[in-house]
Amino acid sequence: MTRALINAPKTARRGEIIEIRAMLAHPMETGFRTGTMGKAIPRDIINRFVCTWNGEEIFSADLFPAIAANPYLAFTAVATDSGTIAFAWTGDDGETRTAETEITVT
Amino acid sequence: MTGRAPRLLAGLLAACLAGSSAPAGDMLDKRSGADFMSPENRAMQADDMSNPGMFAVLDGEELWNRPEGANGRSCAGCHGEAATSMRGVATRYPAFDERSGRPIDLAGRIGECRRTRQEASPLPHESPELIALTAYVAHQSRGMPISPPQDERLAQFRENGRRLYERRIGQLDLSCASCHDARWGERLGGSVMPQGHPTAYPLYRLEWQAVGSLQRRLRNCMIGVRAEAFAFGAPELIELELYLMERAAGLTVETPGVRP
Fold this sequence. Notes:
The complex is a heterodimer of chains A (106) and B (260).
Chain A: E1 4-7, E2 11-12, E3 17-24, E4 46-53, E5 56-62, E6 72-78, E7 83-91, E8 96-105
Parallel strand pairs in A: 2-8
Antiparallel strand pairs in A: 1-3, 3-6, 4-5, 4-7, 7-8
Chain B: H1 4-21, H2 39-46, H3 53-64, H4 75-79, H5 82-85, E1 95-97, E2 102-104, H6 106-118, H7 128-139, H8 155-166, H9 176-180, E3 187-188, E4 191-192, E5 203-205, E6 210-212, H10 214-224, H11 235-247, E7 258-259
Parallel strand pairs in B: 5-7
Antiparallel strand pairs in B: 1-2, 3-4, 5-6
């Protein structure tokens, strides 16, 4: 189950710079820790984040084990067209978690 | 002239009464742990969209509405909307439990409700589900002042809690009071020692990278002074919480908090 918190404005003027903030609930297990009986806990992190605006990629990031649990990314974009801002987080498990939000540009 | 003396006497009497009714650990300048945090951490707690503790609250909301156990009832099935039925509840816990004749904390009450009303399997201490439900219920009291119940039956347990708070333990021979009463505001290594008021539990601790309970935090401190920590759910930890809540009376609930 994807549990994400997205903070982006619902409306914007054309050409306005908006801030988009996205946080995903994820343990970001580094693979360097050991659990009970000294057994290594396998690495399980989100390694790729992509944000698209009406299907066009506007921001992406590679994530590494040093990033804390519940990765939080904040970035800015220029509001061009109304539509859907979509977010995708891909993990070591091969699964992609998605979330999206609507924006109206006037 | 004649009126002044009795008035002065009354004033003195009131001052004496106020002095005697205040608990031993009462502070004049009570401050939440949030006051000692960096501006960045305070901002993280203040914004629900960047506070990772909100994930636990959202999970808790889902669990609140999910039917569980043998009779297939959800928390909402009896209690309805948590926003109204659970408002202010966390400000009054730990409370006296009639069945066991002892104080019970919020997580313990949720566990009891699960066992007796839902007839569901118990949730282990510190399990994500129990933390989430506790966070969701406590979140409904956010912004309300902590107001411990004035129940006579709790007095002896609260007194036990105070004794535990003031007792030196561990190889470092420190009591809770050694730091949180005598030296709050000073530094221990790189971090500021707060007054130790449990206003924001369950909270997201950056060191844990997870949401945890007050009991987890208390155990951390006990391990820190190299003492043998009480087990999760131990009566001593609940007595300590009872005293800490009395000590924090009047401060506002912040659940889910963020702490370094």
